């Protein structure tokens, strides 16, 4: 009788093993899975034709990553020169909320740049790794404009502006710069800067090794120096780091934005919409060109 039971157990075990082999790798028992989400580009809405990274654009990817079966951690690959402080912080908060809810560690891997808002998002990681040539930091706030008042005078244009509210035309580029407007802008920047500094301190804690008057000036550093200052935890790439930690057979499925036939059906336009979209595209070309130049300028600041 015992021999028959043993034989049945062996057959049953063999069936289970065969079923396991038929399953996708990420569903097999014992398989270490670390889903990967790539967060790249300038942060914030740029133009309709050149959307930047926003919480609404990445939320579904993050939720899918943290909801992955058998996940041991979530890896974020970041390549961003920054942008909107609001969107940066909202993405940071969503990552931390999901990490706490799912009780999963977050490992961040910096590619070319994690600067300004990009570094704010990187701080959502429990650990940050980078390449020796990566750029990290730029913990500060920047804003800029142009002054066109002399240019419009030369070509005979008169600026006519009507407002209700004495500060409604603050920093109008077609009017002479007002020192009071600049003072108000700088006060807002200092407030946002303080929020950024507090977030970095809370996230990095005792790992920060540099002096505050060095770390929080808006300066940025290459990977090795950033590690020395405590802005990152080590030099390392995603594949090597995850294999060393979770084994050679660790699975790293990339969580991509939704696409394909279903999204195409959901986004199908009404008859004639194609022609209108083409006209809208032509009208938006000047704005899109300016947006492209601004985006290029942001990347160029960090040598890319």
> How many whole angstroms does the radius of gyration measure?
25 Å
Instruction: Report the strand count.
Output: 7
Beta-strand percentage range: 5-15%
Q: What is the class of the domain at 31-140 and 205-300 in the CATH system?
A: Alpha Beta
- Low-confidence blocks of residues: 15-22, 261-284
How many angstroms does the end-to-end distance come to?
A: 74 Å
Q: Helix-strand pattern, N to C?
A: HEHEHEHEEHHHEHEHHH
Report the principal-axis shape: elongated
Could you tell me the mean pLDDT?
Answer: 80
Question: Architecture of the domain at 31-140 and 205-300 in CATH?
Answer: Alpha-Beta Complex
Tell me about the biggest sheet?
A: 7 strands, mixed
List the helices and strands and how they pair.
Layout: H1 2-22, E1 36-40, H2 55-66, E2 74-80, H3 85-102, E3 106-115, H4 117-122, E4 127-130, E5 135-137, H5 149-154, H6 179-204, H7 212-215, E6 220-222, H8 223-228, E7 234-235, H9 238-246, H10 261-266, H11 273-300
Parallel strand pairs: 1-2, 2-3, 3-4, 3-5, 4-7
Antiparallel strand pairs: 5-6
Helix pairs in contact: 2-3
InterPro entries: ClpP/crotonase-like_dom_sf (IPR029045), Peptidase_S49 (IPR002142), S49_SppA_C (IPR047272)
Family: Belongs to the peptidase S49 family.
GO biological process, one term: proteolysis
């Amino acid at each position: 009788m015992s021999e028959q039971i043993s034989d049945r157990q062996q057959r049953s075990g063999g069936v289970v093993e065969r079923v396991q082999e038929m399953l996708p790798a990420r569903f097999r028992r014992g398989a270490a899975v670390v889903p990967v989400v790539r967060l790249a580009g300038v942060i914030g809405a740029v133009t309709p034709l050149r959307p930047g990274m926003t919480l609404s654009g990445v939320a579904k990817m993050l939720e899918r990553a943290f909801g992955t079966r058998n996940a041991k951690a979530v890896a974020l690959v970041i390549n961003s020169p920054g942008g909107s402080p609001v969107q940066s912080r909202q993405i940071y908060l969503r990552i931390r909320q999901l990490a706490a809810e799912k009780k999963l560690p977050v490992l961040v891997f910096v590619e070319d740049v994690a600067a300004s808002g990009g570094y704010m998002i990187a701080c959502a990681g429990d650990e940050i790794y980078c390449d020796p040539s990566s750029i990290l930091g730029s913990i500060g706030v920047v804003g800029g404009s142009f002054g066109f008042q002399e240019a419009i005078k030369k070509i005979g244009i008169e600026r006519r502006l009507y407002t209700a509210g004495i500060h409604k035309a603050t920093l109008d580029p077609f009017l002479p710069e007002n020192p009071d407007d600049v003072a108000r802008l700088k006060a807002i920047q200092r407030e946002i800067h303080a929020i950024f500094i507090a977030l970095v301190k809370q996230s990095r804690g005792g790992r920060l090794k540099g002096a505050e008057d060095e770390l929080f000036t808006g300066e940025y550093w290459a990977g090795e120096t950033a590690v020395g200052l405590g802005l990152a935890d080590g030099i390392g790439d995603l594949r090597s780091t995850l294999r060393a930690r979770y084994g050679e057979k660790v699975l790293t499925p990339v969580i991509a934005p939704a696409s394909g036939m279903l999204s195409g059906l959901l986004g199908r336009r009404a008859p004639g919409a194609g022609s209108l979209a083409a006209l809208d595209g032509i009208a938006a070309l000047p704005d899109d060109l300016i947006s492209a130049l601004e985006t290029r300028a942001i990347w160029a600041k960090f040598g890319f």
